[in-house]
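Entry 14. Structure prediction run on the chain below.
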Amino acid sequence: MPLRASLPVHRGPGFRQDDSEYAALSFRAIASYTHRMTCDRLFVYGTLMRGFDHPMARLLAAHADFLADATCRGRLVLVKHYPGLLLSDAPSDIVHGELFHLRAGDELLRELDMYEACGEGFPEPTEYLRQLIDVSLPDGTSSKAWTYVYNWPVTDLPRIVSGRFLKH
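Output returned:
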């Protein structure tokens, strides 16, 4: 039976009352998953970062290995109690986050897609899109990684000028 069929439907990012149940089911399902994907790295910049007390951050921590602090070219906006990433080519636009290696990549990404409301079955346009981007590591190297890019209008959303969600 597909993993998604056994999980409650989520309607968008942020904390929801059923997140603990969702995360518990996800922990069990991902623990048995072994399939590998083409890119096994994820760049996170908001509620999925280490130290953020949220069931989905704990799910990520349980099924991924922290590799390094990392940055990408972009801007952060404050959507509600969570951020949105807007990609940018400007050298001065930097978003700070964390890079993870996903041990159960495809399955974990499907769970995170549901949390970010961009998985199968969500009406278009979804609030986030999962995209493969370039991230920079502290040693000057770069890496490809998945991330979630904000996809709705940002006209009245405040910018997080520092590019650091946890310190705004």
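The longest helix spans residues 19-31.
Filed with the rest of this week's runs.
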